[in-house]
Amino acid sequence: MLRTGKEHLESLRDGRVVYIGKERITDVTTHPAFRNGARTMAAIYDAKCDPAATDLWYEEDGERYSMYFLQAKTREDLRRRMLAHKRIADMTLGMFGRSPDHVASYVTAFSYMPEVFDAVRKGFGQNILDYYAHLKNNDLYCCYAVLPPQAMRNPEYYRERKIQAPTLRVVREDDDGVVVTGMKMLASGAVFANEIWIGNILPMAPDQKAESITCAVPVNAKGLTLWSRKSYERDAASQFESPLAWGFDETDSMVICNNVKIPWEKVFVHNDAEVSRNIYITTPAHTYSNHQSTVRFWSKLGFIVGLASKVTQATGADKIPAVQEGLGRLAAQEALIGGLVHAQIDNCEPWVGGKFVGFNRRHVYSALLWCVENYSPLIDNLRELCGGGVFQMPADTSVIEDPELRKTFEEFWHTPQLSPIERMKLFKLAWEFTGSEFAGRHMTYEKFYVGASFILRHHNFREAPWAEFHSRVEQFMGSYDVPPAALKAVK
What we know:
CATH architecture of the largest domain: Beta Barrel
Largest sheet: 6 strands, mixed
Number of helices: 17
Strand order of the largest sheet: 2-1-10-11-7-6
CATH topology of the largest domain: Butyryl-CoA Dehydrogenase, subunit A, domain 2
Structural class: alpha+beta
Radius of gyration: 25 Å
Strand content: 5-15%
Number of strands: 14
CATH superfamily of the largest domain: Butyryl-CoA Dehydrogenase, subunit A, domain 2
Distance between the termini: 77 Å
Number of domains: 2
């Protein structure tokens, strides 16, 4: 069933513990570091409740559910999912990478193949089906933390000193569940979420059984704390001054567990390092969630292209042929990623003997690699089109409060294209993409949100039809003979 934005905000007042530095925060809906981001999230929930928003919900047994919980059995089902991802991404300008439709897509795809989890322990398959129903029926926002802390790159450091490594692990098994302690990263959106999926997206050593736990935990679980990075929203004086950081800072948090109890019904993998990672690849889960990622990037790029064009219009550079060529290149790149998104659907793949369908893996991974490798050049293009315009504005809008300063501002900052205040508004928005601290976070995020680029290249290597490629080369080479004289010389 669908929940309203008000209901979602209320669900965040659940006693969760969030730290920014030494400050402990228990109500993210009112705190200056998070309140606008929380309202942005609430707006997504309200949009889904609109009876006319048929691209955001589907009906089943007389009830409406968020479209991202739709189990896809046809190509058209995949298209419906894509349209929902696009609508949600457009609402946040593509700034919320881990919006509620991301991890929900993981869990929906996991529900196709409960036998993968039963292979670890009988009953885990039913756990995943029950968890899918739990999220779907209650319209919950689940984020994830599926990476070990970077310190775990040197496990021998801890072994040599005989001290406990910081990564999250099972420290005790009880009749009613397991107890976990340690750290996981990086829970984007966690302060606005209801639950956290804890797992392992990277390969693990066979002896890392205690660390192989894959489970779900409420954000307000006893012993769980979120350590947030610096909030960009808190430093935003107004939406005019920081138009993106004001309401689109999804936040990133480290998850710290101190003897957190996980009931068995919320455990999906335990004591199996190989399966803990492989569940994402042996099911359609990884492509379902990362289809959302490519749709989200597509939405963001469309906004960047529009902003780049508006900047050139504001400076009068839009009539210069070289600038038009640059804008044409940007527009072509937006169309390219859009084409890759549609290719993931048009060339969909059957799963579970054709009972379900998934997005085309090759097109998902090629799109992801393109996004990771091209965001920096895209922003460089926007920066180039802005020129020094972002530095030529007064520090803030307080200049218009003083009559003399306002008169000077209106006289010297006026152009034939825009009024001074509209120019300031436009270039402050451009700065949020090209130079602010918020922009820096997105530059790093877009490079690593699916892992390092070499990991993506490995995904593309794994999914490539090498036998088909080789066969074409061999077939052509087999169509002509080696000259007899050359054969004779070899003999």
